User: What shape does this take?
Amino acid sequence: MICSVARSYKKKRDRNAAGAILPKRLRVLTVRARPGHPSQGLLQAGKMVFACALGRGGISAGKREGDGATPLGPMRILSGYFRGDQFAAGRGTRLAMTPIGPDLGWCEVPDDRNYNRPVKIPYGASHERMRRDDRLYDACLVLDWNIAPRRRGRGSAIFFHLARPGFTPTEGCVAVTARTMARLLPLLSDRTVMRVVR
Assistant: This one.
């Protein structure tokens, strides 16, 4: 009796070895919505593609405060924050990274003089607490959306941070798994641009 044996195909090493595919430095990260899922995305870094979460409002060219949309266009990565006790990989990058203390906040009130800036908690105006219980900001990179110049109501706290399980929507940020962030951080600098495209 002759048995036919199915041949197994060799795994493509270049597809599975991140070290062979990711360059030593990344100048551009390209983000687009996942087809059929406007609040989930695909982030391309070199030849690698990673899943990411986007804003609950999808991608928008007319970003406004509170709309939950991820801004369309290029945004440079400026610097970052990290929890040293939770995300040690935050130290292994060319970016300027600041440890997150319990008194760090981010102002989100368009009429406040510190709109879209870090503030010290307690703070009189509405703000976001950076030391979060859900650990989404254990690694949190600041994108230059509405930083200089700042325009009232054009959106605040647009970050590149860690995703919730299942890549549930953000409030307008781009978010990836902790594992993906740890892989990307050593390759990023303040010259890296995140391009959100359609």
About this structure: Residues 9 and 15 are 14 Å apart (CA to CA). Confidence is low (pLDDT under 50) at residues 1-20.
